[in-house]
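Complex record, two chains
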Amino acid sequence: MSKFRQNKSKEMPGVSTASLPDIVFTVLAFFVVVSSMKQSDLKVELTKPSAKEIIQLDKNEEIDYVNAGIPKNPAFGTSVRLQLDDQVVPNFLKIREFIVLRRNERSQAKSDKATVSIKADKDDVDMDVIDKIENELREVDALRINYSTQKETKR
Amino acid sequence: MARRKLQELDASSIADIAFILLAFIIIATTLEKESGLPAVLPQKRDVEVEPPKANERNILEILVNSKDQLMIEKEWDKKLEDINGVVKTFMSNPNDLDNMPVMISVTKAECRTQLAKLRIDLAATKSPETIGIIKDQMSKWQGKLNATELVGNYRTINPGATIAIQYDKGTSYGQYLSVRDRIMSGLNELRDELAMKNFGVTYAALESIRAEVKTEEDKAKIKAVREVYPQKIIKLPAKNVD
């Protein structure tokens, strides 16, 4: 009997926080492994088209983004504009400059495998714009492209 | 002198530091991976050549006009859902119809004889240009031979056949991609069937194996399936279509 009574008066020990850093570092490590860097903020209105047969690009793949849509800020114009990096440009010729610049930042082997991802609004952008983008890309020999889409819910 | 007891490092703030790092990583990165429909653009030519007039039966023409309406093989008022089936029959021509592409049978024996022939040719020539051409041919036949080893003798579409998408300048990007997507989905259904029959898994499952754990065998299987059902989609230059 007395054995049980002894503990009753003692105070509850506090939870040890010594392992907290370990737990947090584990979570941190998880996020570092599975996530990838965000690309620059979008300055054009963009609803990606949806598709079923999409293929996920490799995380380590070198990707350049060409965004096309109507600028969120009307100061940049009210019709379809391109966004390269974080700049909104009206001129398709800028694509060449952009690709070449990116190519110079990389090693030869990497830039051979680089992909250009075209992110364009599904309604506002028409095929004329896409054609112009593709022609510019062909001009600088960036032939591997990806039409960026979002996943459509399965059939 | 009395030795002072070594003080232990206070570790309570490490948790705070780790939390701050965690917060930074969560904000600066994204879990969403880039995905979409991949394509390869044709190389730039100095003079744009008109595509050679292909045999009518070898081309599946899908037309999208500026109002996003569809025409498949000269028939208006088609729906996106129709593309799937049309592509499947076009790519496989199961009943050997006259208005569908000619199918070619590829056999192991034929691949071997062709390779042997090319090897003799290769030994006989010295000009670097012809050697290049012959080597290209050889790798083509080698690919076919590898495919027959995995899936047995097969029928495939003749190399001249293509699925052509014709669009207007005003066609919306979304509609164009939907069309492309449906074509791929028809093609992938055929690929799934073939892979299921021969390997017991779908093509989609083979494709989705992560790059780090994909074995040579998986890659060979994917190649074989693609050899039987190649992706042949071309974009015709924009035309005015109402």
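Note: The first helix of chain B runs from residue 12 to 28.
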